[in-house]
Write a structure and sequence with these properties.
Layout lengths: L14 H21 L4 H20 L13 H4 L13 H5 L3
Protein name: DUF2892 domain-containing protein
Organism: Agromyces archimandritae
Keywords: Membrane, Transmembrane, Transmembrane helix
C-alpha cells in the first residue's frame, strides 16, 4: 500500500452537495435569527452550526477532520480469502458436519 487508510480524507463533496450544504446553512441561519428573542443559547448554537456548514459549502472541505477507519490486517488474516468460489450446495455442507 502506498498510504495509510486512516490518512485518506472521506469528505470530498461535489458541486451538487456543496449547493445543498449552502441551502442547509441558509435554513439553519434563518432558524438561528428567528430564535434569538426567545432562546438565545439555541440561536448561538444554531449560528455556529450554520457557520460550519457555510465553511464546508464554500471551501469544499470538512470542518471536522473525518478520516477513514483503520483496518486491522492481523485481525482479518485469520479468515479465509473470500475472493475464491464459494459453494453453498447441500453436498458441500455435508462435508462440514
Amino acid at each position: 500500500m502506498t498510504g495509510s487508510p486512516s490518512a485518506a480524507p472521506v469528505c470530498r463533496p461535489g458541486a451538487g452537495t456543496r449547493i445543498v450544504q449552502g441551502l442547509v446553512a441558509l435554513m439553519v441561519a434563518a432558524f438561528a435569527v428567528g430564535e434569538v428573542p426567545e432562546q438565545p443559547v439555541i440561536a448561538i448554537i444554531a449560528g455556529v452550526v450554520a457557520l460550519g456548514v457555510t465553511a464546508m459549502a464554500i471551501t469544499g472541505r470538512c470542518t471536522i477532520p473525518v478520516r477513514a477507519e483503520r483496518i486491522d490486517e492481523e485481525a482479518i488474516a485469520e479468515y479465509d480469502d473470500a475472493r475464491r468460489l464459494v459453494d453453498l450446495s447441500a453436498a458441500s455442507q455435508k462435508d462440514r458436519t
